Amino acid sequence: MTHITDSEFNTISDEHTRIMLKNAHQAISLTESWHYITTFNEDSFMFSGSPAVSNIMKKMSELGYDGHSGCSFGWTMRQMEFLAKNGKQAFLQQFV
Question: Is the dihedral of CA 32, 54, 4, 82 positive or negative?
């Protein structure tokens, strides 16, 4: 299950981390890309040539977060991949 509510995101104490993850979660949901994230098997999100990754990046910016470095984008997307492959309980447990 990949749906996370605002109150569940609010359990992530670091505000910057919470903002990045929530933005990515919304972008992936709005672009209907969860299946793609679940089956992602490339070496890098940052250097991916996939149109799905480009669409997600564009939507993240449209939603108001355009402050990623290559490293923060890669980390954020790996967190979303972990969520997609392991479920929200395991994902949220990382931030307890």
Answer: positive
Cα 1-17-41 angle, rounded to 5 deg: 50
Secondary structure class of 52 (helix, strand, coil): helix
User: How does pLDDT run across 11-38, given as a tens digit for each residue?
Assistant: 999 999 999 999 999 999 999 999 999 9
Q: Which long-range contacts (CB under 8 A, 24 or more apart) does 67-74 make?
A: 68/20, 70/46, 72/20, 73/45, 73/46, 74/44, 74/45, 74/46
pTM of the model: 0.93
Quick check: 22 and 9 in contact, CB under 8 A? yes
